[in-house]
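Input (structure):
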């Protein structure tokens, strides 16, 4: 078994980011503003799809000056949009959405108005869908989460294929195919379980018993999942739970290690607040109180591997980004958060619901969406020395540690 540990680089300074551009996703009455619920990025980073509380999906395009511009608005859902993805690397204009109206839909952003909805998937037993995505070896599997079931359709003909009924005992909250390993599907649910399946091979042979690779247990409802890239492709799975804990698992090729715990951060909000306070980072009130988690990201390091980071925010709309400081024994000892490496403040005045960011690409600066209806793109303001700990979780199944004299 390969070593999970290696030295990490010195701590980065904290970059204070300011909004480069701010747009209002939709205007509504003061007592019922439009919320930006989620943001999904295309594989090339050029397009961003946002789900809005107006039952619409709004798609943006990055501009050369680091900002964003509205491209199209996708309308047709008859109830709240619960999930949105741009799932295919080679089809950056294909958007997948799910809704409480009982449908999963595929959209083509290049099409003329009135022709952008290209396919609609339903199941007679399903009244609503909480999540949806598109993938598989030939990118023909459309997957939706309905109650405790995972529903499959064949994109090529629009017909149903299979229903996984025994993997989760409570509602499934997220379904995602793993980038770079398109036959691998991950599901997460209110039962605190995350499951990994191999859904390759003949579509008619898909089943949840033979395809199950591993089950991960968090002990609390899982509200979000994703992947961060490392030295050996996208091989770290991250999960955020309803009680604001962050979990990280091995999602590499090795069948013996997939699902192994890499890091667990109990009370991640509290860890972020304590880290901000210790580092003297007071912008946006992050050193006083952190109220929620936004998502996870990674940044490649010159020596190999990646620093994995958690973004967390305040009720007033400030967001801090913190490196994960892993323990030497992640299975039994929790991780903490290092000093913040980035702070975004001055763009939002309410809870930030979603964030898209690729720290390795200067052409893809952070974009955030909030309950204040705003979508903000961020750029550098200034850098201050954050001090802090030099041990970081390294993607690729590696955990990095700095000098032993660092803060614990």
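Output (sequence):
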């Amino acid at each position: 078994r390969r070593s999970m540990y290696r030295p990490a680089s010195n701590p980065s300074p904290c970059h204070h980011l300011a909004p480069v551009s701010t747009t209002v996703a939709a205007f509504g009455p003061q007592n019922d503003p439009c919320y930006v619920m989620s943001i999904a990025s295309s594989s090339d980073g050029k397009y961003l799809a946002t789900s809005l509380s107006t039952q619409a999906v709004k798609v943006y395009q990055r501009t050369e000056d680091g900002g964003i511009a509205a491209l199209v608005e996708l309308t047709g859902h008859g109830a709240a949009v619960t999930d949105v993805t741009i799932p295919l690397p080679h089809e950056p204009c294909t958007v997948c959405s799910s809704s409480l109206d009982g449908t999963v839909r595929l959209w083509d952003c290049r099409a003329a108005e009135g022709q952008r909805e290209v396919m609609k998937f339903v199941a007679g037993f399903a009244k609503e869908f909480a999540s949806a995505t598109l993938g598989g070896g030939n990118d023909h599997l459309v997957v939706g989460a309905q109650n405790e079931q995972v529903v499959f359709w064949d994109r090529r003909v629009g017909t149903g294929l299979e229903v996984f009924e025994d993997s989760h005992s409570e509602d499934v909250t997220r379904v995602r195919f793993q980038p770079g390993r398109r036959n691998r599907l991950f599901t997460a649910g209110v039962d605190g379980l995350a499951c990994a399946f191999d859904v390759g091979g003949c579509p008619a042979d898909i089943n949840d018993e033979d395809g199950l690779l591993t089950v991960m247990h968090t002990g609390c409802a899982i509200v979000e999942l994703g992947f961060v890239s490392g030295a050996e492709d996208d091989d770290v799975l991250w999960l955020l739970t309803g009680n604001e804990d962050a979990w990280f698992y091995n999602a590499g090729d090795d069948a013996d290690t997939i699902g192994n715990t890499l890091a667990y951060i109990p009370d991640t909000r509290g860890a972020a607040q304590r880290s901000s306070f210790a580092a003297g980072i007071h912008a946006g009130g992050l050193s006083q109180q952190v109220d929620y988690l936004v998502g996870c990201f990674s940044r490649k390091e010159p020596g190999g591997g990646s620093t994995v980071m958690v973004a967390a925010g305040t009720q007033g709309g400030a967001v801090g980004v913190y490196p994960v400081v892993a323990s030497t024994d992640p299975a039994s000892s929790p991780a903490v958060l290092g000093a913040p490496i980035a702070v975004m403040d001055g763009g939002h005045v309410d809870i930030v619901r979603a964030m898209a960011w690729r720290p390795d690409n200067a052409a893809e600066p952070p974009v955030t969406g909030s309950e204040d209806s705003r979508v903000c793109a961020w750029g550098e303001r200034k850098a201050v020395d954050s001090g802090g700990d030099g041990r970081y979780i390294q993607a690729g199944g590696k955990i990095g540690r700095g000098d032993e004299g660092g803060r614990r």
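Notes: Confidence is low (pLDDT under 50) at residues 1-9, 382-408. The longest strand covers residues 14-24.
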